[in-house]
Specification:
This protein is an alpha/beta fold. The chain has a single domain, classed as Rossmann fold (3-Layer(aba) Sandwich). The chain has six helices and nine strands, in the order βαβαβαβαβαββαββ. Strand 4, helix 4 and strand 5 form a beta-alpha-beta unit. The longest helix has 24 residues. It is globular.
Length: 204
Amino acid sequence: MGWTRFGVLISGSGTNLQSIIDACAGGLVPGEVAVVISNREDAYGLQRAKFSGIPGIFLDPMAYDGPGAYDHAIRETLELEDVEYVVMAGYMKLLGAEVLDAFPMRVVNIHPALLPSFAGASGIRDAFEYGVKVTGVTVHFASAVFDEGPIIAQEAVEIEADDTLESLEARIHDVEHRLYPAALAALAEGRVVVEGRLVRVAPR
């Protein structure tokens, strides 16, 4: 078991980022967050990185000549920091081939629903309003299509009769903050085997 360097991509407050930072610091994940990259200058996750002594970098999409050039800048930044895995933690842009090809099956995303159900940016609300009785959280390898790619881990969350959207969101986020670090630990420890779309995760 080695030491893994993660590069985390964010767009917002960075609560999943914080759970990963804490899990690394607490020894749950044998590795460290080497760099945090945001496409938004006001993302609070950049402050979280600063508080933890982690390089936090704002890359402005408007400063580049199209998505390809922007992804090239992301790839270069990740490679400069010797990153092994790229972790999307509330990153609200689609990554292109420039990054995906540079880190094959090493770009990970989290989604607040049980994929393939309720893909998209409003997965929690969509599940709640549809009236399903069970939703959940999915950690998966990213692909060139939003919320697709082989699934690493899932955990179900029951929607209770007295749930509000806010109470459901809180319980979903609690699961995210536990499931994502656990999945990253499995990757860092070499316990994840990918066979096409089938992903096997060995126990510790």
